[in-house]
Amino acid sequence: MKKDTYFDNKVIWITGASSGIGLEMAIQLDLTGAKLILSSRNIEALNALKNKLSNPEKHFVCALDLEKSSEFEKITQSIIEKYSKIDILINNGGISQRANAMKTSLEIDRKIMEVNYFGNIALSKCVLPYMLQSGGGQIVVVSSIAGKFGFYLRSAYSASKHALHGFYESLAMEEFNNGIRVTMVCPAKINTPISVNAINEKGTKSGIMDNNQRKGMPVSTCVKKIVRAIKHQKQEVIIGGEGVFAIKLKAFIPSLFRILIRRQSAT
Ligand SMILES: NC(=O)c1ccc[n+]([C@@H]2O[C@H](COP(=O)([O-])OP(=O)(O)OC[C@H]3O[C@@H](n4cnc5c(N)ncnc54)[C@H](OP(=O)(O)O)[C@@H]3O)[C@@H](O)[C@H]2O)c1
Predict the structure, then answer these.
(1) 170-219 pLDDT tens trace
(2) Residues in Cβ contact with 106 at an 8 Å cutoff, skipping those fewer than 6 apart
(3) How far is the CA of 254 from the centre of ligand 1 (A)?
(4) What is the CA radius of gyration of the chain?
(5) Which of 142, 154, 184, 264 to mutate to test the pocket of ligand 1 (most atoms within 8 A of CB)?
(6) Looking at the domain assignment, is residue 165 inside a domain?
(7) Ligand 1 atom nearest residue 219's Cα
(8) Structural domain count of the chain
(9) Catalytic residue selected from 117, 130, 157, 168
């Protein structure tokens, strides 16, 4: 990707930049001339990433735990002090689940909601006032096809992603005339360590690379599609042919969808 007039000198905050989709997003957006804020809990991984990018001096690493929303205002202020604005917030950080609903405690359900839903919307609520002050901005939300239908071993994960759609559809309507644009991204199976990092019934990392993940779309292809959707200010983008098919089938022939989805492997 070359320098790009849409992204050049835009200040873009990426959460979950230490791995998978967020990390690849940093690699591709670095080449567009954007100034990146790289966030997650793993500062070492973020610093290693920043030093690998072609314009490290433009970028800023900043620790953020999506479970600690009380810290977000201070973190946001530190970014505003450095860059004076945030043009695009990419709410990408999240955790998946590989655990049966009946065997998952409410505590684990709440943790997944905290990271994937409350942490996500809390960050948007911190950033929005600054975007409004500067006349507008863009919020990109990495949801999932699990935000469109439930799936085996993903009950809380799917719920957290469904919740994002309700919240951001409303927000996008309310803030449209104030120059805020929201892009919902729904990837299908992407080849990242998401299943390895997913939490199990005990609340610990599954540690297993799923076959579905390994066979998934290359992360670089997925991110190219996300970058294009951001640039065109798409309201929603489904990434992966099987995702597009499943969502259409659920909408138009739900009875057949239910038969076919039950036959899919959980992992
Ligand atoms: N891969 C797929 O097939 C797929 C499909 C649909 C949707 N998605 C979505 O895409 C997004 C990125 O997933 P990925 O595939 O790139 O997975 P990944 O490789 O496991 O990356 C997840 C990222 O989220 C961060 N994160 C996790 N918990 C966090 C917390 N409490 N606070 C702050 N950051 C946290 C991680 O950073 P730290 O551990 O350093 O904090 C990491 O950078 C997620 O929202 C996921 O739901 C992925």
Answers:
(1) 999 999 999 999 999 999 999 999 999 999 999 999 999 999 999 999 99
(2) none
(3) 30
(4) 18
(5) 142
(6) yes
(7) 1
(8) 1
(9) 157
Please check whether residue 138 lies inside any domain of the structure.
Answer: yes
Cα 241 to middle of ligand 1, angstroms: 21
pLDDT tens-digit map of 44-98: 999 999 999 999 999 999 999 999 999 999 999 999 999 999 999 999 999 999 9
> Is 195 a member of any domain?
yes
What is the C-alpha separation between 18 and 234, in angstroms, rounded?
25
Tokens, residue 73? 């205002």
Quick check: is 117 catalytic?
A: no
- Tell me the CATH number at 175: 3.40.50.720
Tell how far the Cα of 194 is from the centroid of ligand 1, in angstroms: 6
Residue 54, domain extent: 11-241
18: left (phi over 0), alpha (psi -120 to 50) or beta: alpha
Q: Is residue 2 part of a domain?
A: no
